[in-house]
Every structure is written in C-alpha cells, then in structure tokens.
C-alpha cells in the first residue's frame, strides 16, 4: 500500500492511497460479480473484449479503453469467451484531511474528494500515458523493499497525472455532448431513482464537476431538470389518458 500527498491549498491536505493492483489475462470465463466499488477503480484494457456494467449502464470493453469509476459505483464485469480480456485493474482511495491530534493528521474517505476532470470512459488520448505507468506499477507493487515502495509510489502518481491530463481538443462541444448524454438518460429512465453520481458516470465527468457543467450548459440543476422531465412526462400521460373522453 502506498500513498502520496497533494497540497492544493495551505489548509487542505489530500492523500491518495493505492489499495489494490491486478492484471487479468487470458481467462475466457473471468467475471467480477456485481458489487459496489469501495474505492476508485481504474480499468486499463490492454487486449481482448468484455463487458462492463456500471450503475446499470452497459459498456463494451475493448483494447485501448480507459475507465475511472468512483467509489459506490455498482460494478459488474465479464470477459468475452472468444477474445479474453487483458485488463489492468487499480483501486485507490482519495482521502481528505479531517482533523489533527498532537502527532497525527486524521483523514476521512470521501466519494469524490479528488475532483478528477473525467470519470466513466476516459478520453482516448489519456490511454497511452496511463498504460506506460500501469504496466510497471502492477509488476512492482508486490516489491515491499524500500526502493520498491518508492518506485511504486512514483509510478502510481504518474498514473494519476496521466488520467488528469487536460484534453484540449474536447473543448466546450464535448462538454455539451456529455451533458446531452445525461439528459437523454433522464428522459429514458425518469421513472427510476437517479443520482447525481450515476449521471456523472454516464456523462463521463466527475461528480465534483458535473453539477457546475450541467447548470452552465442547461441553465438548470440536474435535480430541477429531472423534476421538469417527470412533470412533463406525467402531463403528457394524463393528457393522453383523458383525450378519448373528450371526443
């Protein structure tokens, strides 16, 4: 287990803790049973094919894809029998300073403490930078010598830097397209309970940024938009039910 500190403000201490690394390869019947992610989950698909289900939404897993799933995401994965997955799996926590004693800084887990610019399926340009660091990281994470721990620490933070790299050519247009995906999801599944975190995964934007981007794009909060959609759908349904009586 390794950790590293990132001081964003003079009075704010943020720490990332790597909790698990694994390489899954060549197992035709491999699957991850449905479970809630206890930490951030980074998937780097190196080969093969499979399927990911995140909060009820299905994604294909193919070579060259990169996914970042926030804590509490309901996750299920399976490898394709014809083309087994080659998949790097990293799990890590983001911790925020929660208080101090005389000798110790106390930390508390937060579901979106890190404020990553993207979640869900990450932009393709980020894949190469993440893969370069993930491969040696998974090989070295079992090395518990002091040099091995230092190298693991360096590679882990190289991965974090790679997935936070700005993708300038996405621009405002892609942000708008991401919000459109969330709105389309609300229009289709408005009868179901829908959380901000679930919409953020669908949009591919971290929940830390999602509410701001959503209001900037639509002029409404996600909650207000969802209520508006539900009221409109209910009105249409009511009108259609009484219309035959008016003839």
What do you see in this structure?
Keywords: Cytoplasm, DNA-binding, Transcription, Transcription regulation. Residues 180-247 form the HTH araC/xylS-type domain. It comes from Paenibacillus ginsengarvi. This is AraC family transcriptional regulator. The chain has 247 residues and is of the alpha+beta class. It has helices spanning 127-140, 146-163, 171-188, 196-203, 207-218, 222-242, and strands spanning 2-9, 12-25, 31-36, 40-47, 49-54, 57-62, 66-69, 74-79, 86-100, 105-109, 120-121. Strands 1, 2, 4, 7, 9, 10 and 11 form a 7-stranded antiparallel sheet that branches. It has a 4-stranded antiparallel sheet with strand order 3-8-5-6, with no helix packed on it. β9 and β10 (105-109) form a beta hairpin. α1 (127-140) runs antiparallel to α2 (146-163). Residues 1-11 and 169-173 have low confidence and may be disordered.
Give me the secondary-structure topology.
Elements: E1 2-9, E2 12-25, E3 31-36, E4 40-47, E5 49-54, E6 57-62, E7 66-69, E8 74-79, E9 86-100, E10 105-109, E11 120-121, H1 127-140, H2 146-163, H3 171-188, H4 196-203, H5 207-218, H6 222-242
Antiparallel strand pairs: 1-2, 2-9, 3-8, 4-7, 4-9, 5-6, 5-8, 7-11, 9-10
Helix pairs in contact: 1-2, 3-4, 4-5
Under CATH, the topology of the largest domain is which?
A: Jelly Rolls
Average pLDDT metric: 78
Distance between the termini: 71 Å
What is the CATH superfamily label of the largest domain?
Jelly Rolls
CATH class designation of the largest domain: Mainly Beta
Q: How large is the share of residues in beta strands?
A: 25-35%
* Tally of contiguous helical segments: 6
Number of E strands:
11
User: What is the ordering of alpha helices and beta strands?
Assistant: EEEEEEEEEEEHHHHHH
- Biggest sheet record: 7 strands, antiparallel
Radius of gyration: 21 Å
Structural class of the secondary structure composition?
Answer: alpha+beta
Per CATH, the architecture of the largest domain is Sandwich
Percent range of helical residues? 25-40%
Overall 3D geometry?
globular
Low-confidence stretches: 1-11, 169-173
Q: Give the count of structural domains.
A: 2
InterPro entries: AraC-bd, AraC_XylS_family_regulators, Homeodomain-like_sf, HTH-like, HTH_AraC
GO molecular function, one term: sequence-specific DNA binding
Organism: Paenibacillus ginsengarvi
Domain HTH araC/xylS-type: 180-247
């Amino acid at each position: 287990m390794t950790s590293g500190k990132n001081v964003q403000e003079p009075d704010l201490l943020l720490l990332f803790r790597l909790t698990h690394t694994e390489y899954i390869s060549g197992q035709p019947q491999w699957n991850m049973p449905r479970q809630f992610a206890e930490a951030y989950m980074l998937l780097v698909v190196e080969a093969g094919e499979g399927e990911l289900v995140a909060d009820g939404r299905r994604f294909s897993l193919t070579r060259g894809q990169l996914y970042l799933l926030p804590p509490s995401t309901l996750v299920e994965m399976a490898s394709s029998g014809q083309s087994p997955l080659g998949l790097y799996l990293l799990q890590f926590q983001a911790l925020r300073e929660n208080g101090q004693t005389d000798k110790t800084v106390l930390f508390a887990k937060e579901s979106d403490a890190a404020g990553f610019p993207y979640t869900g399926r990450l932009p393709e340009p980020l894949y190469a930078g993440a893969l370069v660091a993930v491969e040696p990281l998974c090989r070295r994470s079992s090395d518990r010598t002091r040099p091995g721990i230092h190298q693991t620490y360096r590679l882990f933070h190289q991965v974090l830097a790679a997935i936070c790299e700005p993708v300038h050519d996405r621009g405002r247009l892609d942000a708008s397209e991401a919000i459109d995906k969330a709105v389309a999801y609300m229009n289709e599944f408005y009868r179901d309970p829908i959380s901000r975190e679930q919409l953020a995964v669908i949009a591919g934007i971290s929940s830390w940024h999602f509410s701001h981007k959503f209001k900037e794009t639509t002029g409404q909060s996600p909650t207000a938009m969802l209520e508006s959609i539900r009221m409109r759908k209910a009105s249409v349904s009511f009108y259609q039910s009484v219309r035959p009586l008016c003839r």
